[in-house]
Specification:
The chain has 154 residues and is α+β, with helices and mostly antiparallel strands. It contains one helix and eight strands. The strands form two sheets. A five-stranded antiparallel sheet has the order 1-2-3-4-5, covered by helices on one side. It starts with a helix and ends with a strand.
Length: 154
């Protein structure tokens, strides 16, 4: 009888150790998943901010440097890129409005109003400044730190 009780105590002890191992493993998996989710979120936000700057850079590089200007229209700081297609003049307006980077492509005869165009990407701030032949851009994503870029327009 004594060996039987001893055997039962060993079995219960082994089962308790196994349950403790299973619970610790579960907590470790949950903590790892939470850390991974945070890292992926920050990477996505950072990539979105970089993609925003790359998008604007490509738009500016496609244009002639004389056709790029920073203007204040309707009280809104706007990057204006002029272009010609089929002997008609067009303008692309890139600006920040209500938490989004916006782009509005239209004929030069049409006017500009804040809110016109398509939403490019969500951002928390977007600033631009033209100094001579340099275009300075800075953008902050929704959850990431800001990034800045200086382009030569020559």
């Amino acid at each position: 009888m004594n060996s039987r009780n001893s055997h039962s105590v060993y079995t219960v002890f082994i089962l308790l150790i196994f349950c403790l191992f299973a619970v610790c493993s579960l907590f470790l998996v949950l903590i790892g998943a939470n850390v991974y989710r945070g890292i992926v979120g920050k990477m996505d936000s950072n990539n979105e901010t970089r993609a925003t700057l790359s998008y604007i850079t490509n738009k500016v590089h496609c244009a002639d440097s004389r056709d790029v200007s920073v203007e204040t229209l309707d009280g809104q700081q706007t990057l204006v890129i002029r272009s010609a297609y089929n002997e008609r003049e067009y303008k692309t307006y890139i600006y920040y409005c209500n938490g989004y980077l916006m782009e509005y492509f239209t004929s030069a005869e049409n006017g500009f109003s804040v809110g016109s165009g398509d939403r490019i990407t969500p951002v928390s701030s977007f600033k631009m400044e033209k100094n001579g032949n340099r275009l300075n851009l800075s953008v902050s994503g929704e959850t990431s730190r800001g990034l800045a870029l200086s382009l030569s327009l020559t």
